[in-house]
Amino acid sequence: MAxxxxxxxxxxxxxxxxxxxxxxxxxxxxxxxxxxxxxxxSEPAAMVGGVxxxxxxxxxxxxxxxxxxxLLGFQSIAASGAIMASWMVAHAATHGGMxxxxxxxxxxxxxxxxxxxxxxxxxxxxxxxxxxxxxxLVSGLSDIVVYWTIVVATIWSICIVLGNLSEHMRLQAGTDxxxxxxxxxGFQIAxxxxxxxxxxxxxxxxxxxxxxxxxxxxxxxxxHAAGDRLLAGLGRAWRTRVxxxxxxxxxxxxxxxxxxxxxxxxxxxxxxxxxxxxxxPVAWSVGVSEWQTGESxxxxxxxxxxxxxxxxxxxxxxxxxxxxxxxxLLPST
Length: 333
Hints:
Layout: H1 2-10, H2 15-36, H3 45-65, H4 71-90, H5 95-102, H6 104-115, H7 118-139, H8 144-174, H9 184-201, E1 205-212, H10 215-222, H11 224-239, E2 247-252, E3 255-261, H12 268-276, E4 284-290, H13 298-325
Antiparallel strand pairs: 1-3, 1-4, 2-3
Helix pairs in contact: 2-3, 2-6, 4-5, 4-6, 4-7, 6-7, 6-8, 7-8, 10-11
């Protein structure tokens, strides 16, 4: 029953939102609990309780408006949590209070390692390490070297080990193992990011769907291993021909998709010509559509697919006409 309740509450929110909200909520409750049952009489219960209340309030705000927050916003919120923990360490007054405050760092490190890029994780790790160091020095507690070693070693162990593991898993989840290009899921994430950027800058955004010609016949004639080698080689070649900011992905089978930021449909022709430059082992057809503001990704994809279908139909009609003219389809006399 508890699992169903949690699934129901988090179903409508991205993991990056609800997990950060729960992190602040948990830390807030720990602060309120520590204020209600202080570890020692000298514990600054009022301060700890106030920070706990702020944590609960932040959790509620993130839960309500988190879907509007950009990635940089989540990094800033996580950093604010680290700063808050450092402030508590500096004013902890007792060893027990310091450990309660320092308890927040591993959770922030875990969150950062799971959701942020390698650079973002390193930034968070540095911020937490420096903040904790300053907090300990200001606190005036004894034996701070032992505390510093334990907490900082824990922070960087999480950042390095879990960060590398998370990055590897993200790479696997968003990359096509055969071509090394983005897969459908990776392309969707990258495309939505570019759509948001184009909305802010007002620049055009164009999408092209590419489909190989006669790929099925290659598989039937030479085998699927030969078809896989062809796809892998084509992916490597195309990566060297697109611009650095262009997003190329294998959408499935022998279909590829290319997103061109700051490019109109007319401007896309030059990029597509560069793709054709070379002795590729197979020809391909393309459908192009501009991605207009306010449209979901499915809309320009459907338009490009429609244009591509028109090109394929024209090719088949032209091929049939050619065969007819050479007598292949002429009735016998």
